[in-house]
Amino acid sequence: MSIFNPFINFFRVLRQVVKGNKWYYAWVGFLSFFILLGLVAYFRQLNHGLIETAMRDQVSWGLYIANFTFLVGVAAAAVYLVVPAYVYNFKPIKEVVLFGELLAATAIIMCVMFILVDLGRPERVWHILPIIGKMHFPASLLAWDVIVLNGYLAINLFIPFYALYKLAHGREYNMQIIKPLIIISIPWAISIHTVTAFLYNGLPSRPFWNAAVLAPRFIASALCSGPALMLIIFQIVRKIYKLDIDNKAIFKIAELIAYAMGFNLFLFGAEFFKEFYSNSIHLAPMKYLYFGLHGHYNLVPWMWASLLFNLTAFVLFLLPKTREHFFSLNLACVLVIAGVYIEKGMGLVIPGFVPGTLGEIYEYTPTMVEKYITIGIWAAGALIYTIFLKFMIPIYKGELRFKSSQSKNSSLASNL
Amino acid sequence: MKNNEKKRILTKPISRRELLKGSAFGLASLAIPIGKVDASFWEAFFQKHFREMNRDEVKAVIARLEKEYYKKYNKNFNIKTTEAIPGTLFGYGLDLSRCIGCRRCVYACVRENNQSRDPQIHWITVLRFKKGEKWVNDLERAEKYYYPEEVPEEGYFYMPVQCQQCENPPCVKVCPTQATWKEPDGIVVVDYNWCIGCRYCMAACPYGARRFNWAEPRIAREELNTNVHYLGNRPRYKGVVEKCTFCIQRTRGNPGRYPACVEICPVGARKFGNLLDPKSEIRYIIENKRVFRLKEDLNTQPKFFYFFAT
What we know:
A: 17 helices, globular, disordered C terminus, B: 4-stranded mixed β-sheet, 10 helices, disordered N terminus
């Protein structure tokens, strides 16, 4: 009997995922359309090569790596829920921490996708692995990134899956298994973002990245965009699944975003001052970003918009009155996500390459293929997260239960 | 700059219709015809890292590659795997007082090393500077796209840049798969069958010396150089990085030949030799002329010496 249980349980989950109301189907259909569009664009890119993108030898990384960097930040931000939930035992947040961990896992999966579409030879990606490939560890920071990102993905999949697996069997999860993983996930979250920052930071050929403030700024901005994304998702989930998420959790996270954004803006100011006051030749990339360089202004409006968004959101999150009012709270969340997406995405990657190492200015504007692939990956991420929630929330609420051999269960209970 | 307009044309956005059309072909090419695939497909897929193969494995790979190239270009290639000659460390000298900016070196290199003609790939970039303007440390005023009737132009001077074959190469350090490394004779090489095309090395190189195959490289059959080295000028693939190798297929010989750029230079501005040989021309230059290296502040220790003979 019990041999079949895993299959029966799998079909229960599958049924839960496949069945839904018309809004669910509409949403999945909507996402699938963009995934398909992304796939079509990706096949074109595979066929013709990365010449389909606007990247060239002068600007050899673009929109894909920009999105990758932003999403590492989103993933790292789950720590903002884990710390208050488990370390300070703040009850309202503890109830939503699982969804934060799933969001982190989804973000890492999207990161992997963005790296894969950026590779010239994706079929050789196994060369980067240890043992079967020839991983350049510890010299290459990209090798470090492979390790920390995959480790983080494993942790953030294991914790929610384990907890919900136990819940689905009607059992309490074992805190002794979860606790060490949670403790380790805190520095690990910091590490994924630090390593990603170091990936840029360690290149003296690119003065814009070669500033010590880069890694701290990465962390600070990640602790703004990630939680802001979560706040919006929590409100949607709360509405759709009639889930009890305490307002206190939402307002507490919003308050924490304010502190992180304050720190981020301070670090930005420090960087801005250092570059402009010293006015050395390394000012060029910063000048390109905010004022344009030799008649090239592509990123200027974006960067000022980003700064304005971040400043406005900072004020909205900081004042209790606007923080605890859902309209201004959500506005602030959207502003922060957009602001950090610009600043940590294109605003970080492109000035590394402009001006180039031989002084050339190549203005990069992503092609339609790049945009379709990017949208496709975002849609895929949204679909993955939707599916996670579709079967996890019923388990969480006790509506979906797994079949398990009763006798074994009771004997276990009596033993304990 | 002028270049941007050209780039725009290449990267103009495509319509959805075009996109769908192109992708249908893409999908078709992706469907792996299981059963039809010959063994060489999987041999190529599972090919080991160049430095991890034993002699027999290298031989087998070379035989397979020669067959592949024959199939692709209908030409017999001779792929060498000549190892570094003991006691050599190659160094390069470039006399800035002589260079006239004619770019003959650029195109001699393209022909010798089978660079793609469409899209165009050049391993050598010649920079033009206005006399009296800043240069050396600040290359913002460097002009790569100059097209005069005649060179040298009044009031300008030229500085060719190519791989500086650093003793401390940042590109090698960052490569996540060890697809690029420094050989015992100091040449930094790439295994085109191991590179995954992540382009981290291009971000790391301070000299803009690395080139990526953004598309399938295209060369007319009659223009192919079939005398090639595995780590050097053999035809490359779409999606991998390539770079100058000091013409490894020529210089690693006994007797060796000069790199193509040295041979072609009409004013004798380019010098090449063994840094470990006290009687070599390159050693004479270093010991007797005013030499400098590009971006010394980054501590990459180039083996490429710029100098002024007159």
